[in-house]
């Protein structure tokens, strides 16, 4: 089985079923497959063949989906990248991935225009024709009657997804068809997807959770895909209500922003069976805000990381009442989970250790980095870098990222623990905690605060609030007010930026 065949099969089974809603366009499974077939033939004429790397630089549009599957139909390897990347970031990926071709949406063309692309690279853009670039529309203009059969097997390489790069240069994560289909199958079953499902895609399809867990899973069962090239609270509410969506995946910030929409109560969101979030847990207070605003009890938290497919754990809707903030107490379908110490042995009781995952959804490896692959996958287990513990009921609580741990005077301090407490302060909108170099202690703790309301003296107020809630050695010694926290394209806080800022401060 391969992803191209999923589409071809559904086109035979459900030719008139709605496959894509793209603005005013409504595309059936038959048309979807026919257009992909035509595009695949066009790409072959351009010299793209099995194993070639093709970079896809587009927002969530019909043409993204067409290109994604057409490249696979050829047996080439698709490399989707986030539409919010800068030219410098895109240029790095084009070089590192050994791309033979790049597909660019017309709205993103200014980002690419200034790049010095190699003459050998096949360059395709949507919209108006430009010298040196092939027209996407021209490739679709000559219908092909002969079916293009994809010969790829489950253990063949399908795609490379680049990590968000919060700790350095992005890494290329290589997936086989087996990896992707394993993760998609999990989501189909855990979130009860079927032919009647209507899935709203607003998070970038260039990332593993939206792409593998929601698009490929929906393709698997013949669901309808409602596309939005950008996220706004108003657009989320409008599409969810108008298109009667059943499934949505978003970062926590998407839910929190939408919950503040002044007219959210006017929208009928009752069709949604699963409001899924991931990337970070929501605390009890945040869950209550979202549940009340969305008038739903159908919140589900998923935990995983790109390298795992993503697969990992889930916190079901009914568990949020007493375990909000946890990532659940069992691994999801097709996955196993352990929490281990530095020697790879299972931790005891509520001891903190590293989450390790195992399953057929786990990546094949990092592209062109065998050493890092071997360090990340050991004995068949994927070492996530997430430090966590079990509570007395067996629920898993992520304590922090291994790389974010602050070591002060030889003692481990977990920034997330401090952030969780400070986030409960009514005058604090957001907070990020990092380690600052200290000549005697090695590191000391610094908090970057985004205030919700004005505080006369943020240091005094934060220390007062934390007193008695955390041990004294965990309470930050340094504080800085900041207008907003630096985030990457998926909404994750980039702590390297904060560390660089404080390093300059310390040495300036």
Descriptive account of the structure:
31% of the residues lie in helices and 26% in strands. With 508 residues, it is α/β, with parallel strands linked by helices. Among the domains are: 141 residues, Rossmann fold (3-Layer(aba) Sandwich); 103 residues, ANL, C-terminal domain (GMP Synthetase, Chain A, domain 3). Helix 1 runs parallel beside helix 8 and helix 10 crosses helix 11. The protein is globular, with a radius of gyration of 23 Å.
Output the CATH topology of the domain at 1-17 and 29-152: Rossmann fold
Got a strand count? 26
Radius of gyration, in angstroms, nearest whole number: 23 Å
Q: Could you give a short account of the major beta sheet?
A: 8 strands, mixed
Overall 3D form: globular
Supply the helix-strand structural class: alpha/beta
What fraction strand?
A: 25-35%
Which blocks of ≥5 consecutive residues have pLDDT under 50?
504-508
Number of helices: 16
For the largest sheet, list the strands in their spatial order: 2-1-11-10-12-13-14-15
